[in-house]
Amino acid sequence: MWFASGEFRYWFQFGLFAILAIAAWRYGGGPERVLAGVLLWFSIAFPIANWFLGQWSDLSQLDTANAILDGVALIVSVAVALTANRVYPLWFAAFQVLAATAHLAKGLAQGTAALAYVVLYVGPSYCQIVILALGIWNHHRRVRKYGTYRAWRNSSSRLRATIPSNWPSG
């Protein structure tokens, strides 16, 4: 049964990621485009990494290629979450933390069940799809209603604290 295989899941997710990337490019701002790129990163880099490393994990051991890809996605997701002028990237990054810690758990406890491992590192991507889709939709709705707004937070220069001359120094 083809639709129950991992191959179907791959192509289904790839299609969703591509649709989100097109929507992010058309309707989103910088954070939406970067996070859509993170999702596309999974679909494109995973088969290449597995081909290059010559391994497809049977899930009884740590999937090194996917752990590296999730680590890169974690770094990018957290960077976007901390600098974007939006709230939803925090949720996106939180689910990426779940996926990355699944690899850590598998590496530390080799007795982890294969099903638990796959649910922990594949499951968050479905939540990320929903989160990004809602983020693109909310961004587009806000731009239509209020006009454009900053995509990224500004970091102001550090102001030296000035102490009033009449401040008690006791």
Automatic annotation (TrEMBL):
**What UniProt keywords are attached to this protein's entry?**
Membrane, Transmembrane, Transmembrane helix
Kindly indicate whether the keyword Transmembrane helix belongs to this entry.
Answer: yes
**Where are the bilayer-spanning segments?**
12-28, 35-53, 65-83, 90-109, 115-137
Q: Which superkingdom does the taxonomy of this entry point to? A: Bacteria
Stated name of the protein: Uncharacterized protein
| Lineage of the organism | Bacteria, Pseudomonadati, Pseudomonadota, Alphaproteobacteria, Sphingomonadales
